[in-house]
């Protein structure tokens, strides 16, 4: 089973609108063309679909994603409007990818750049994990770890300690994917008695400078995506970049 993660498209309703380092819709087209060539079984878009937060931008995103020859899911980021997304394509909270299980967590806080799950969502996550011991992959928008860029770490998942406390009780959680950081990331996080692989992904739109103290665009990096190949309960993963 092959899963492709894409993230942070930051689309405008206007296909020709520019971001700081390119045209987001053009970037999305190139990333999807490359991803399709990878023959994915499933694609997940981990948030910040829109930049202007318009209904037209989500219509454009869903229309473009419909090129995919496989099922796909998306989630809201801090720049998104979930109700407008839901009107175009379902906001799933769980997907079965046998023998794996994908859980999609909602982390945005209205009006804020940082993320939070909150007590109720954490309790719900614990209940879901308690009742199902399949190997589990979690996707979310905000990083539940520090990525090493001071300004980005300040706007990651604010209740990350509580999140990891929940995860520590469930060794079936093997992998966490996040967006938001606009850069690659790959580390193992010790959750009590078990390791969890935590992965970030290049953005579809602008790339951010790794390790920066303040906001900075990485003009030398290109858009990209992450591939995960699953072999029963084992996996391989790597990043691919595209030319735009």
Automatic annotation (TrEMBL):
Domain called Calcineurin-like phosphoesterase: residue spans: 1-183
Domain of life: Bacteria
InterPro entries from the UniProt entry: Calcineurin-like_PHP (IPR004843), CNP_phosphodiesterase-III (IPR050884), Metallo-depent_PP-like (IPR029052)
Entry keywords, A to Z: Hydrolase, Iron, Metal-binding
Keyword Transcription part of the UniProt annotation: no
Signal peptide bounds: none
PANTHER family the UniProt entry points to: CYCLIC NUCLEOTIDE PHOSPHODIESTERASE CBUA0032-RELATED, PHOSPHOHYDROLASE
Family of the protein in this entry: Belongs to the cyclic nucleotide phosphodiesterase class-III family.
Name of the protein in its database record: Icc protein
């Amino acid at each position: 089973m092959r899963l492709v993660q894409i993230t942070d498209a930051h689309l405008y309703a206007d296909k020709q609108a520019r971001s700081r380092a390119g045209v987001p819709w053009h970037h999305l087209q190139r990333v999807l063309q490359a991803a399709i060539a990878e023959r994915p079984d499933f694609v997940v878009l981990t948030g910040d679909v829109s930049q202007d937060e318009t209904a037209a931008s989500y219509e454009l995103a869903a229309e473009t994603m419909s090129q995919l020859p496989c099922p796909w899911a998306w989630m809201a980021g801090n720049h998104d409007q979930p109700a407008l997304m839901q009107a175009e394509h379902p906001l799933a909270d769980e997907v079965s990818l046998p023998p794996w299980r994908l859980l999609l967590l909602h982390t945005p806080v209205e009006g804020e750049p940082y993320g939070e799950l909150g007590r109720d969502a954490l309790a719900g996550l614990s209940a879901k994990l308690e009742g199902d011991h399949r190997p589990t992959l979690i996707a979310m928008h905000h990083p539940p770890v520090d990525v090493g860029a001071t300004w980005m770490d300040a706007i990651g998942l604010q209740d990350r300690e509580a999140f990891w406390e929940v995860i520590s009780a469930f060794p079936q959680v093997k992998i966490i994917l996040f967006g938001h950081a606009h850069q690659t990331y790959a580390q193992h996080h010790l959750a009590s008695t078990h390791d969890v692989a935590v992965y970030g992904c290049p953005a579809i739109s602008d790339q951010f400078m790794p390790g920066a103290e303040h906001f900075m665009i990485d003009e030398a990096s290109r858009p990209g995506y992450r591939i995960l190949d699953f072999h029963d309960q084992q996996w391989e993963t790597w990043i691919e970049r595209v030319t735009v």
